[in-house]
Amino acid sequence: MTKVMPVNVLLKTGLVTCLSLFHPAAASQDWAVHGFASQGVIQASDNNFVSRDDDDVSYDLTEIGINASWQWQPDIRFAGQLVYLNGGNRYEEGARVDYLLMDWTLATDIDWQLNLYLGRYKNQHWLYSSTRDVPHTRPSTILPQSVYYDIFRDVALGSDGVSLSYTRLTDIGEFDLLWSYGTSPISDSATTLLLSTTASGDIDQDFTHQASIFYRPEGSTWQYGISLLDSDFKYSADEREFYFDADATSQRVMLNLMYNSEQWEFAAELFQERFFFDGFFTPDWNHDQKAQGFYAQGRYFFDEQLTLMLRYDRYDANKDDRKGKALERNTGVPAYFGYMYDTTVGLTYRFESNWQIQAEYHWFEGTGRLAPAVIPDVATNNSKNWQLWAVQLMYWF
Fold first, then answer.
1. What pTM was estimated for this model as a whole?
2. Distance CA 320, CA 302 (A)
3. pLDDT of residue 29
4. What are the CA-CA distances from residue 314 to residues 13, 37, 227, 292, 323 (Å)?
5. For residue 361, what are the β-bridge partners?
6. What percent of the chain has pLDDT above 70?
7. What integer is the mean pLDDT of 283-310?
8. Nearest alpha carbon to residue 235 among 190, 270, 272
């Protein structure tokens, strides 16, 4: 009997083959091709952050990707990226198209430029939203979950629709104005991670509408920004399940800042997010609350090879119930599901121009960002305090 190779092995083999074929780089100057491959080990104690079954050391930390861009005309460029991911229980395993777009420079002058993006564009509204898809461009393997929620990775990375960017140089500094409108597909696996292991219906995103502005003062090493998000979702229940059709709305306001110097970098993002749920448990059930969160992160560059990172990340699911006491009193769900705080230390060593190893350790209090998000897994995630560590080796060209 012929043994069939598992699908995930086929996907990884195919992407690695593509990487090897494109490695020498494209012959035409109009083409640019890059790729990356990373593998790591990770362990989270006493919960399902990495694995649904146990908290043993896991190798579910694989990222392989290839991206290309083609300068078709002086003002029109096409770009795309295909990746294979295995992050355990953090998001769905498998291949996906992260972005596939047309970048059209509508107008440009000596001190300003206007670009239009059509297709599956990348989210450029947050500090790391446009670089989180490539391992060596992230400050850590696990990003601050208050903002960069892994369960929502594919939805937050990009959308199918239209985006505009306008950059303007002035006497007082540089301004970036960004706007986007689109939708993101949500898989069955993501539905389970978001709602419940017993949910068998479908989630559709009606739209996500974002706008942001970034400002870099003239002669300064600081950058300041604000971003706005409005998004609607719809849940279509399966006729065989106990849940009902539902509508949900997410509205976020976020402030951010970043400082860069030769040896220091500081980054922070602060947000408030209103989440409104109508339906699901019963046709008439509704819930409206405001979550708040922030992280503050510092990096010190000893030299071009070695970097130290320290970060504190805080998420409160309900700003009026920060320690979850009302959550436990009203629902019986342990109070520590109402928040999640994370202190992280990390070290990155770039031992070659295109090779890097990254290690980090996290101390968590609370489980408010563990899957599933709507109906918590109280049996598996039964520890208020827990730790996580990860080591990841990365290569790119």
1. 0.91
2. 42
3. 74
4. 39, 31, 19, 8, 12
5. 345, 389
6. 92
7. 98
8. 190
